[in-house]
Write a structure and sequence with these properties.
The chain has 78 residues and is an all-alpha fold. The chain is built from four helices and no strands.
Length: 78
C-alpha cells in the first residue's frame, strides 16, 4: 500500500537540480530514474521519493499519480 503523502509529494515536488530541474518527479524520464538507481539516489526525502517514483513507473502506475497534479494549489518546491 502506498502512503497518501508520498503520492502527493511525487505529483507536486519538482526536481531541484540537474538536467530536469523544475519537472515534477512523476514527469521525470524513466531512464533518468534508472540512472539514479545505478549511481545511487540522493540522500534523504528526495532520494526516497525518486526511488518510489521509479517503482511506480516500472509497474505502470503513473496513471494514479497524474490526476493528483490537477486542482492542487501550486507545486511544492525544494
Amino acid at each position: 500500500m502506498f502512503d497518501k503523502q508520498d503520492l502527493l509529494d511525487i505529483a507536486r515536488t519538482e526536481m531541484p537540480f540537474g538536467k530536469y530541474a523544475g519537472r515534477t518527479l512523476i514527469d521525470l524520464p524513466e531512464p533518468y530514474l534508472l540512472w539514479f538507481r545505478q549511481r545511487g539516489f540522493p540522500p534523504g526525502r528526495l532520494g526516497q521519493l525518486l526511488a518510489l517514483t521509479l517503482e511506480i513507473r516500472i509497474e505502470g502506475l503513473e496513471g494514479m499519480i497524474r490526476p493528483l497534479k490537477r486542482g492542487i494549489p501550486g507545486p511544492l518546491r525544494r
